[in-house]
Amino acid sequence: MPDRAATWLCALLLLLAFGLRACHLDYQSLWSDEGISLVRSALPLGEMLAQMPVEHVPGYFVLLKGWIALTGETDFGVRYFSLLPSVWAVALLYRLAVDLGSRQIGLLAAALLATNGFQVWYAQEARMYSWLLAAGLLSTLCFWRLLADEAGKFPWGVWTGYVLATTATIYLHYFGFLVPLSHTAFAALWWLLGRERRPLRRWVGAGVTVALLFSPWMVRGWRLLAFEGWRPPLDPAQAPWLLLRAYSVGETMPTPWMDWLPWVYLVLAALGIAAWARRGQAALFLAALLGTALGVIMLLVVRQPDFHVRYPIFISVPLLLLAAGGVAGLSPRWWRPDRSLHHVDLAAPTLVLALLLAANALALERLYTDTTLHKPDFRSAAQTISAGAGPEDVVLVDGPNPELVFNHY
Fold first, then answer.
1. Distance CA 296, CA 292 (A)
2. CA-derived radius of gyration, the chain
3. Is the Cα torsion angle 95, 101, 103, 109 positive or negative in sign?
4. How much is the pTM?
């Protein structure tokens, strides 16, 4: 595909991603977790850092504090802060695929990410998860460029980008450590395969710098080992399926699609390994990212049952790149040495992509319209109370931490 055509298609996908995430952005009330974001970001910086719970790192709340100072506390405004990095992630995923060797797979992966119901859900929530994805993607893009650049001149821009993006990732959420851990696994494979050592030394220097930048919070981070969590224990054997379902079809996909479509993604991801193998080290790179992240999560679930599928959102990167590679690999053209094009070659990948996008559309329609999936409507309740309650009335409010959101409304 010509570069100009691919650029225009990517731009259209970014517009689509923006539109899907902006649609109904402030339709639902804020809920308790978003209330936590507002309350915490409103504190003076020193007090915010001192009161930070053991399970959180301060990156997102510091950024949100600055954003609110510029835009105010409207529901649309605070959620727009999550929308932006979710759209950027679509562009970064495409760029990573191009650097790995396939513009076509990049477009397929960008289409899947742009329309994924899980991604849209967390792009419309005033929490850190879309930032975690975008920062992890930027870190991974810089990591690949650090290793792939074997020129003698030191790549200061890429090196600095890696340091800043990786530091941001681990300051956004403790599960951000999946990103540098996955990089470490691939770096070990790079060394074992006898590849050029100079890029590896550059990455080691960047990693040491990241560790130094995180060191002020490291003492607080060790306390997480004693954190008992908020959720009941999870069977570790369930974790892979829950993650596959979340990052392939999302949590708003209607049945029976939710039950069998993740298996389609799994088959496509397996085929994608073979398809990416035609692009040098790309298949090994993506398999290392996915395998390391899954392995670490399994160990963490055994050690600490407080787990939610939104925490390791970075897993969607290698999963969707592999699945998109599987879609591309359905074309006989992909495997022919001459790469000559026949009109029938695009039939299978086009049909499968249309199926996946149609399923994503169903999940999005349910996300926007199914009230059983919507957050508690604290906004309407607060408006009703304000309009109808007298000065001597007693009002009982139930729900998870309702005072956090009622103070906002």
1. 6
2. 22
3. negative
4. 0.94
